[in-house]
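fyi for ur records
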Amino acid sequence: MKTDSECTLVTAEQSPPSQHLPEHLEKRSAGSKNKKNSQKTRILTPATSLARSSHQEDPSSSQKASATCAQSTQTESPQLQSFQTQSTQTPPIQGIHSPSTESKSTQTQHSSFSLQQAYWGRSFTDQSTDEQETQSSSRSSHLTVLSWNIDCLDTDNISHRVKGLLSQFGKYSADVVLLQELVPGCLTTLQNIMKDYQFLQGSEDGYFTAILLRKDRVQLLQSNIVKYPTTEMGRNLPIANVSFLGHPLCIMTSHLESCKSNSQERLNQLRRVWKWIKEAPEDHTVIFGGDTNLRDWEVKKLGGLPDGISDVWEMLGEPEESKYTWDTSINDNKEIPHSICLRFDRLFLRAAAEDAHLRPESMTLIGLEKLKCDYFISDHWGILCAFKSAENLD
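which gave:
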């Protein structure tokens, strides 16, 4: 069991007794109280990766997953509300418990420096000329897209997890970042640190999605938010029309309705996503990424993907190592007592009508390493995908 110094918690009110919480939050609250009492530290190794390939998705596994519904929620706990209220005044990590001998300003400066250091790491100016040229050459020919449900609804060890998140963002410097389960406090922190990105958020309240565009690589042309008329969880579809290396792109993200019991609403939302993808300007390459909460049988129920829309993971040959983005056989943040492996997070692509400018080249899962506090950054893995431009396909 980790010490308090290794797993510092954000100052917040304690959650009420579990009988006052919805079922899915009750289970998470109970798990949080007893979390890590019996440690079984697990990390991804070739052996565990191989073991994962034996897990096949079936309806019974989906039922187990939806019973806990831990991957997303529709009700915020008082602890989260306290966290969000606090963060409207200062970045959330400024609420971390610190030794009483430190002044508030010292704590704030220390937190800010720590987060800046996590994001920027070894600065670009410290690299050799050869390293700079190699990085610039590689970046110029690729569009990198990162999609991640970052689970900011769960406030357990949030300060450590946000710091780890910033470290991953800084490491990969994706051109486009698509986030789900973002909350106002975490948004404020990311905006304060990631000055090199433009932020487009799907909402201002509760939890929501966001599109982040790297300013020196992607230029925003226009944006809008499509509402899902029958959602009960406040879900929507943010859309950004952008220019990348002079080529027009349409970027979309969403967090489709959660839990197996909401399958019909989720499929209604998926149809709407597909409709907007198909109706995007013909000269635009369209990339959608998000937490779809989809089970494979649900896509089959709709007759598969529409003509012209492709699943990026399938386009890359269905690599087993990047299949399961919600994997409780390895990720124990939620302490779900079943080994459940599902491909909730997906990327879709619709090529431009003429001379398609982008093709997927690789897909990698990130966030696979535990932090020092014995938590992963999120209960989901992030998906990092590289697209190669048409002029570099040869």
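The longest helix spans residues 104-120. thats all i got for now
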